[in-house]
Each structure stands twice: as structure tokens, then as C-alpha cells.
Amino acid sequence: MGKTRLHPMTHIARRMFELLEPICLVTFLADECNEELAALGHRTYWDGYFASRAAPLGRVPAHVVHAAFYNFADGEAARHIPSAWETIPPEASVAARERGSAASLRRILGDDLAESPGLVRAADLTTKAATSAPTEGRVMYAGMRTLDVPTDPVARLWHSATMLREHRGDGHIAALVGARIGGTEAHVLSALEQGIHPPESFGRIHHLPKERLAAVLDGMRERGLIDIEGRFTDAGRVTKQRIETLTDELATPPYDALSPAELEELVTALEPITATLVATGSQ
Q: pLDDT by residue (tens digit) across 146-188?
């Protein structure tokens, strides 16, 4: 964070992101969710991804999904929405996503952790935080808030962690928009932060047309965010850090619902769960 002085709750938001993200990642990295969505009839991974993640928004047009997801290239949402819903109701996709994600967590964690009092407590406290924040300006989070919270502790932990992930994501988009960083530009900054060079080789954007990527990189050079070789400038690095810091700040409201003792208890309960998931790559 450099010399930036941050409120303690900002540090809590970053720590909670580190602890909760591996729980959410089973949806995208483990097999069970994709298998559940494929069993419904979704033809590809991305059909299932767009259909199940966008479903809480209702049957909105592709351009609305594109706006809410933010960092996909033009036309990518339209390749899946609304066609992915034509024969499979959105509600069915949401349910399949939850079933598969919870099944992945149970398999990875094993009975000792999945059925432990610590996981139940983690699910309860995560849900308390996830259901407490204002929804204004949080489109994806507001959509998730319309869904019923599962009663099963493992499913409830995944569901509430995913609500918090969408809440954080909405804030991240606000930070990107405020910094005038588009979706593809955001991927370039993320690639450079991860040490990926050239940034256009990053897996999230390498498939895009070369002309499109070249135009994005040229624009970032003109703004002084990257140099001629496509590496961070000082200004680019500062911009990326400013976005991440603001994202953390905007992610704090859910945790205001928890007392300091509850926050400490939640961190302690999540640590062995997260460690187990990290050790397997959430797969």
C-alpha cells in the first residue's frame, strides 16, 4: 500500500477477500459446477457461466449483462445471452451452480471440515455480513440478494461468499470507471501486476483480435500507463494501486455488521477452510 494510510476496515476487506475468494473459485475451477450446468443442457462452459451468473438479474438483454460484467469484450455476452436461457430457465441454472459449487466444497474440504462447527459458524457470520450492506449502485450484488439463502451450511457459505464477491466486484467496477479504465485495459493492468509480459498474452484477452488489442495498448501508452515495451510506467503502477485501494475501501460496508470479536472469529474459522482450498487450487 506504499505510504497510503488506510482505515483498519480497509485491511479487513482485503483480508476477507483473500479468505473468501478460494471458496468462490470452485465455481469456475472445479468440475462439479460445470458438470451440473452441462447436465441441464448448456453446450459450453461459457454458456453455463453467463446463464448462471447473470440469472439473478432476470431475463435482461445481452447489453445489460455486458455492462454489469464489465470486463468482457464487445459481443461476448451476446454469444450466450439470451440464447442460453431459451430452453433452460435462469432459475434452473442458478440452482445448478449452487449444487455444483457446494458439492465441490464438500469434496475438497472432506467430512471433517465440511461438517465442523467452525464451518457452520463461518457460514453464519459470512451470511450476516453478506446480507447487511446497502444495494444502491451494486447491480450484481443486488441481484444475488434476491435469491434465497441456502439452509445447508456448506451451500450457505458458498452463497454468502459469492454475494460478497459480487459486492466487491461492483465496487471494483466503480473504481475502474472512476479511473477511466475499460474492461480490456483492466485485464492489461492485471496481467502486468502478475508479471505477465507481453500483457496481450494474458489468458483473459489473448483471444481478442490483434487490432483491438493493439488499439487498447496504444491508448494506454498515450495516457502514460504503459511504456513502449508494454510494461508499467510509474503512473500506470500508481493508477493500478489506487484502483485496488479504492476497491478495498468500497468493499468494507458488509463487515460493519460484525463486531470486532465476530470479525476475529470469522477469520479464525475461515483460515483452515481457505488453506485447504488453496492447497488444491480450489479444484
A: 999 999 999 999 999 999 999 999 999 999 999 999 999 999 9
261 has a pLDDT exceeding 90: yes
Non-local (6+) Cβ contacts of 125 within 8 A are 258, 262, 265, 266, 269
In this predicted structure, the answer to whether residue 2 has a pLDDT above a threshold of 60 is no
Q: Is the peptide bond before 8 cis (omega within 30 degrees of 0)?
A: no
Q: Considering all CA atoms of the chain, what is the largest pairwise distance in Å, rounded to the nearest integer? A: 55
Alpha carbon distance 271, 257 (integer Å): 20
What's the grid cell of residue 52? 448462471
CA distance 48 to 98: 12
Question: What is the Cα–Cα distance from 170 to 140, expressed in whole angstroms?
Answer: 7
Q: Where are the alpha helices (DSSP H) in 115-256?
A: 117-130, 139-145, 153-178, 183-193, 210-222, 234-250
Query: What distance lies between CA 152 and its chain's CA centroid?
Result: 22
